Amino acid sequence: MTYNPALRERAANDVDGQRIAKGYSWQQLAEHLGKPPVWTVAALLGSHPMTAEDAERIGALLDLAPETVRALQRQPYRTADAAIATDPTVYRFHELLAVYGPAFKALIHEEFGDGIMSAINCNVSIARRAHPGGDRVVVTIDGKFLPYEWNAAE
Amino acid sequence: MTYNPALRERAANDVDGQRIAKGYSWQQLAEHLGKPPVWTVAALLGSHPMTAEDAERIGALLDLAPETVRALQRQPYRTADAAIATDPTVYRFHELLAVYGPAFKALIHEEFGDGIMSAINCNVSIARRAHPGGDRVVVTIDGKFLPYEWNAAE
Amino acid sequence: MTYNPALRERAANDVDGQRIAKGYSWQQLAEHLGKPPVWTVAALLGSHPMTAEDAERIGALLDLAPETVRALQRQPYRTADAAIATDPTVYRFHELLAVYGPAFKALIHEEFGDGIMSAINCNVSIARRAHPGGDRVVVTIDGKFLPYEWNAAE
Amino acid sequence: MTYNPALRERAANDVDGQRIAKGYSWQQLAEHLGKPPVWTVAALLGSHPMTAEDAERIGALLDLAPETVRALQRQPYRTADAAIATDPTVYRFHELLAVYGPAFKALIHEEFGDGIMSAINCNVSIARRAHPGGDRVVVTIDGKFLPYEWNAAE
Amino acid sequence: MTYNPALRERAANDVDGQRIAKGYSWQQLAEHLGKPPVWTVAALLGSHPMTAEDAERIGALLDLAPETVRALQRQPYRTADAAIATDPTVYRFHELLAVYGPAFKALIHEEFGDGIMSAINCNVSIARRAHPGGDRVVVTIDGKFLPYEWNAAE
Amino acid sequence: MTYNPALRERAANDVDGQRIAKGYSWQQLAEHLGKPPVWTVAALLGSHPMTAEDAERIGALLDLAPETVRALQRQPYRTADAAIATDPTVYRFHELLAVYGPAFKALIHEEFGDGIMSAINCNVSIARRAHPGGDRVVVTIDGKFLPYEWNAAE
Amino acid sequence: MTYNPALRERAANDVDGQRIAKGYSWQQLAEHLGKPPVWTVAALLGSHPMTAEDAERIGALLDLAPETVRALQRQPYRTADAAIATDPTVYRFHELLAVYGPAFKALIHEEFGDGIMSAINCNVSIARRAHPGGDRVVVTIDGKFLPYEWNAAE
Amino acid sequence: MTYNPALRERAANDVDGQRIAKGYSWQQLAEHLGKPPVWTVAALLGSHPMTAEDAERIGALLDLAPETVRALQRQPYRTADAAIATDPTVYRFHELLAVYGPAFKALIHEEFGDGIMSAINCNVSIARRAHPGGDRVVVTIDGKFLPYEWNAAE
Amino acid sequence: MTYNPALRERAANDVDGQRIAKGYSWQQLAEHLGKPPVWTVAALLGSHPMTAEDAERIGALLDLAPETVRALQRQPYRTADAAIATDPTVYRFHELLAVYGPAFKALIHEEFGDGIMSAINCNVSIARRAHPGGDRVVVTIDGKFLPYEWNAAE
Amino acid sequence: MTYNPALRERAANDVDGQRIAKGYSWQQLAEHLGKPPVWTVAALLGSHPMTAEDAERIGALLDLAPETVRALQRQPYRTADAAIATDPTVYRFHELLAVYGPAFKALIHEEFGDGIMSAINCNVSIARRAHPGGDRVVVTIDGKFLPYEWNAAE
C-alpha cells in the first residue's frame, strides 16, 4: 500500500525545482514560515505534514501547483530509504551510529535508567561552528527521555 | 576475514562483567581515564583502540585478564551490526536519520557547499537536560566539514 | 505476477483523495457503511474485497471513478510491504512483536496448547482511552485459537 | 558489538529448562513475582532487565545458577530476530500488521493527530475469551499516544 | 533483462479484467479450453505458454486485445515473486514447506533413493472436500521421481 | 531470543544418528508410534512437540539420551530456514509455489470465497505411485478452509 | 546510475517482438550474422555491444526502429538480475554451481594452479545430443585459465 | 533444521586434511574409486552421498575417522552458499549465467520446446585444452532435456 | 525521498545520447572543460554537481536540453547501486576490495595510525600502460589520510 | 560447503597475535619474505596461498603453530565479507566505487574497448605521499586489460 508516498515525492520535486528557479535558500523558506530550518526542509521534502496555512504561504512564495500545496498537507509515510542512506553526506551519520550506538545505549541507560530517547518528542538542529582547523558541522538532537513504563496505563 | 572482532568482543564482555561486579559506572571509568564518556565506552566496547597506558590503567582498576588488556589495544574493525540497530534505544537514532537525513544533506550543502561532515574528525557527547515535561537526552555531534576537493592533492 | 496490486493501489489513491477533498473522516466512511472502522479503512486501502453494494455506496458518497468502484471489489493480494513497516507509526507495532513475540508464543501455548491465534478469523479495533498522563491508544486483537490438528480431516 | 545477548540467551535457557523440570507454568512464575504475565515472560526470556530482588526471588524458586540471576539483571539488547518472526504463532501477528498497518496509521492520525502509539510507555496483555465457535485469544495493547512535538524542548 | 515479463503481466491484467466484466469463472475458462483448472489459470496469469489455438479461443471468448492473444503464446519467465509469497492465501503453502520440507526430503530419499520430485513433469490439482467440521481444500501434487543419475548420459 | 531451537536441533541429530546406527527407517519409526509418517518425521526433526509417551517410546527404541527425550517434548520454534529451501529436493516445492501460487489463490477464492487453506488444521502425506514412465511422488495437502470472518467473535 | 539499461531493454523487446512477428528463429538470426548462436542471442538481448554493421544488418532483416539499431551498439551494463535467476530453465544452472562449485574450484586449482577460468576470454555453446533415454542439452564453456599473477606487470 | 550439514562439513575437512597430509591429488582419489573427478570431489566435499563401499575404500586410503566414513554416506543437504559464490574462481561461472542465462533460455526453448535441462539427470566434467594463447578450462554440462509435461502422470 | 536522482539520471541519458550522436569521446569532453577525465565523466553521469559555467559549456557543445543543463548543477545523491556493482567491468574492483581490503586496512593503520583515507579529499585517475604481455589499466587513488581525531574540535 | 575458511581464519589470528607479541610490523614481514607488502598481508590474512618455503620462513620468524604453517599453504576461499565492508577504513574504497564506478567503466571501454581490467593478473600497492595539507594515501591498482574475446579459443 504505497498510495501516498508518490504524492509527497512529486510535491518535493515541485518545491525544490521552484526554490532553485526563484533563487531561495532553504534557510529563507524557513524564515518565511518562522519555523526551524531542519523541520522546514524535512516537511517540504515530505517527512512532516504542514498546516494549510504554512502550505499555502510557501505555495504563494514559490508559485507551487495547487496539487503540491494539497500534498504538503497530507499525512506522510516516513519510510526509511536504503538508497539514500548510502549517499556520503547521509552515510557518515549512519556510520557514527555503528561506531557509537552501543555507547549511546550504555550511557543513556546509566544516566536515565531503562528507556529511550524519543524520536517523536524531539527536535534537531544544525549549526556552523567556526574553527581554525576548518569549520565544523554541529548537529544537536534533543529528545525527551522515555522510561519503559509498564504501569503507566493504570 | 573476521579474524579480530571476536577478540574485541570477548574483551568487551570481560570489561562489562567486571565493571558490574565491582560496581563502577561507565562515567567513573571515563573519569578514571580522564577521557570523554562516549569515547571511553566506545573504546571499551570495541570501537576504538586504546593506548597501552589507558588499557593497563583500566585493567588494573577492573582486574581484567591480560588477554583483555592486550585486546583493548588492538586496532578494531568498526563493523555495522544490523541486529544492534534494531534495539529500541539505538533504533530511534536510525529513525531520526530516515526522517531528517535529506534535510541534513540539503542544509549542509547549502551552508558549507558540496561535502560531508567528517565522522572521523568528529566527537560526540550525551548530556541530560532537566525539563519540566520530563528530562531530555541531548546528543551533540561535532564534526569537521570536508569539502569535495579533487584538486587538494596537487 | 503483480497484475492486480496496481489496481487496488490506484483505487486507494482515488478514495483517499476524494475523502480529503470532500471532507470526510475515515470514521464517517465506516459509519456510512455500518462497518467497523479498522475493517473499513483496511478495505478501502486495498486489504479486503468489498461487496458490490458497499463499493457502490462508498462510490456514490465520494464520487469515485467507476474503475475505482470495480477495483474495490477485486480480491486483493495482501502483500507485506517492507517500506511501510519502517513508518514510525507502523514500526512501533513491529517493535512490540520483537520485544513480546516470544512471550506471546509461550503464553498462548501454555494457555491453549500447541497452535496459533488465527489472523483470518480475527478482528481488530482501535480505541482512545483518556488518561491523566496523556491519552492512550488501545488496540485489541481478538482471534480464534487454532490448535495444530493433524487428525481433523478424518 | 553483540557482547551481551549471549548472556541473556543462556539465562533464558536456564530459566526455561528449570521451569519445565520443576513443573512451573509461566503464569505461576508471574504470580510468584506479582507481575503481569507478558512482562514476566518477556523479562525471563531476555527482553527486560529485572530488579535484583525479582531476579533472586525467581532464582530461588527455580534453583537458577548465580550467573543466570546476574544475567537477568543485565540491561538487554532487544533486537529483532528475523527467524523467530517466521514461527507460525508469532508470524500471524506480523501478518496482521501487513494487513491492518495502514489502517492503524490512518485511524491513529485521524483520532489523535500526527504521532505514534508509544511502544515504551505501553503494556500488553493476553486473555482467553470463551466462545461457542472456539475460544479466542484476545491481545490488548495499551500505549500512550505521543504527538510529534518539535517545540516540546523549549 | 526483464524484457518479456511486462508483456505477460499486461496480458494477465487484460484476461482478468475481461473475465470479471463478462462474468466467467476461472473454472469455466478451463472447461472452455478442456484443460485442467490449475494449468489454465497459471497459463492465463503468465506461468505457461499457450498454443495459438488455445490463446485464440480464450481471446474470442473474452474479447481480448490481439496483443494479449499474442502475449499468451510467449515463452514466459516463471520468476519467483517475494511479494506474492507474503499474501496470506499463498503464504500458508510456504509455511507448510518450512514445517514439513525436511520431512518431505527424508521420506522421498527413503522411499525412492537420492533424487527429487520433478516440478516439470508434474501436475497439480485443487479440490473441495466436504467435511462436517468445515469444508477442506485438498491440493494434490503429482510429480515424477528423478534419481540423481550421473551416468545416464552414457 | 533463539533459546530453544538449538535443543531441538541436537535432539534431531541424536535421533537421526541412532536411527541410522540401529538400522530403522523413518517409516518404521512412524509405525512404531502408530502415527502418520510425515507427522512423525517432522516431529522427530523438530517441527512438532511430542507427548511424553511418544517421546519415551521412541527414546527406548533408539536408545536416545534423556536430554533428547525431554527436548522432543519441548514446544518448538518452527522457523523458516532459507538455506534448507535451496536443497534441490526441497526447492522443487518452492518452485511449484512460484509457478502455481497465483493459480492456487484464484481457484481457492473462486471456490470457497475470501480466505485461506489452514496450515494448522491440516495434514500432509506422501505416497509412491507406480507409473510406466517412472514412479511418481504424490503429495497430498488437506487443510480446512478458513474464511475471513471479521464478525466471528461476536 | 541506471541510465542505459532501459535503452538496451527496450531494444531487446523490439528485437524479440519483430523476430516473432516475422517468424525468424534465433538460430536464423545467428546464421544471418554469421555469428555463434549464444553470442548472437546474448547480444540481441542486451549483454554484448554489436558493431554498427551487425546492428544494421539485423535491423534491416527485422525492420527494427532506428533507436533500436543504435541501442544495440551501446556498451551495455551486464548486470545480474536476481529475478531471472529464479526462472526454472535458468535456475538449474545456478543449482549446478551450488552443487559442483567447490569441486570446480578444487579441480581447477589442482590442474592449473591458483587462478580462475576467464569469463571474458571465454565462449559458450549449446548443442542437442540425441539419446535413447531422452535427448540432452550439452553446454560447453571454454575459457582461458588465468593464473594469479602479481608480478605480471613488471 | 540444519541438523546434518555440520556432519558433512566436518567430514569434508577430514578428507581434505588427510588428502593433503598423505599427498594425494583429487584426481588420484577419483581414479582410486573409478569415478569421474567432478562427481568424486563433489561427493567428498559433501554434495553427494557415497555408497558404503566407496566411503570405506576412501577411508582406508586416507585413514579417515570412522565418523567421517559414516558421514560420507549420509544423504546431504545440497544448500546454496552465498559466501562461496563470491570466491573469484566460483564467481566467474555465476557471472557467465548473468551474461548468458537469457540466451541459454531462449535457445533451449527454441530447440527443445518449453522445458529445462535437468540438473539431476546430468553430469559435469572439466578438461584442460592446450592453446597457444594460454591453456583453457573446458567445462561440459550434459543434462537431459525435460519438457513441461502436465499430462505425463496419466 | 528519491526526489532528485531521476533528474540526474535523465540528464545523464541526454548527455550520453548526444555525446554518441555528435561523436565526442569522454576524453574530449574532459578536455573541452579542462577537467580531469574521471571527474568529468562522474559529474556528467550524475555523481558531482557542475558549476553553471561548466554545465552551460557542455550544454552548448552537445546541444543539451535546458533541463539537462540545470540538472547537471543540482546537488546529487551519490547512492550506491547494487545492480551496477554486478557489471563485470565494475565488479572486478569490488572483488579487489574483498581480496585486499583487510590488507589495505592493516597497512594504512600501520603507516599512518588509526584513521582512514578520505574519499572526499581524494582524486582518482585512470591511465593506460603499454606492456608486452598486454596493455594494462592503471588506476590511482590519491586521498588524504584522516586520523581519528576526537579532540580536534577543541 | 565452508570447509576451509575456518582454517585460514585461525591461521590469520595466530599470525597477527604472534606478530604483535614479537613486535614485528607487517612491513617487516614483507621484507623478510622479499615480497610486496599488500601481497604479503593479504596472504597472511588468508587471501592467497603461500609456498611451503614462505610459510615456513614466516613460521620460524613468528614461532607459529605447525597447523598455522600448513594452513597458510591451503588454497583459500576468497569470499566477500559484508561486515568487513562496513569498517570505515575499508568502506571509503567501496564508496569511491559507488561514486566513480560508472566513470571507470566508461573510460576503460573508451580507451581499451569492450572488456575489463583483470583482478587476477593485477597487483596493488599502497604508498605514503607527503603533502603540506596532510599526508596522503596513494593506492595504485595495475591490472591487465582483458578484451571480451569470444573467438580466442579457436
Fold topology:
The structure is a homodecamer.
Chain A: H1 5-22, H2 26-33, H3 37-44, H4 52-62, H5 66-71, H6 88-112, E1 115-129, E2 136-147
Antiparallel strand pairs in A: 1-2
Please explain how this structure is put together.
The structure is a homodecamer of 154-residue chains. With 154 residues, the first copy, chain A, is an alpha+beta fold. Chain A folds into two domains: 5-71, 434 Repressor (Amino-terminal Domain) (Orthogonal Bundle), CATH 1.10.260.40; 89-153, 2-Layer Sandwich (Cyanate Lyase, Chain: A, domain 2). In chain A, 49% of the residues lie in helices and 18% in strands. Chain A has helices at residues 5-22, 26-33, 37-44, 52-62, 66-71, 88-112, and strands spanning 115-129, 136-147. Chain A has a two-stranded antiparallel ribbon with strand order 1-2. In chain A, a hairpin with a 6-residue loop joins strand 1 and strand 2. In chain A, helix 2 crosses helix 3 (37-44). Chains A and B meet through helix 3, helix 6, strand 1 and strand 2 of A and helix 3, helix 6, strand 1 and strand 2 of B.
